[in-house]
Amino acid sequence: MKCAKTCCLFFSLLIVFTSAAYAQWTVFDPTNYVTALHEFQEAQQIYTTAIQTRNQVIAAYNLAYQMARMPQDLAQRYRSDFSQWTNLSSANAYGNTAGWVDALNLGSTGRAASGYASAVTQLQNYPGGSLSARDAGTQAVLKNQYATAEINQAAITSALSTIGTIRSHAEAFSQKLTQLESDTYSTDPTQQTEMAVLAKINTSTVLQIHSQQDTNQLLAAVASQQAATQKQQIDAQNRALNQAIYFEQNFTNNMQRVTGGASDTLRAINLSTSR
Question: Which of the residues 20, 169, 215, 275 has the least number of beta carbons within 10 Å of its own beta carbon?
Answer without folding.
Answer: 275
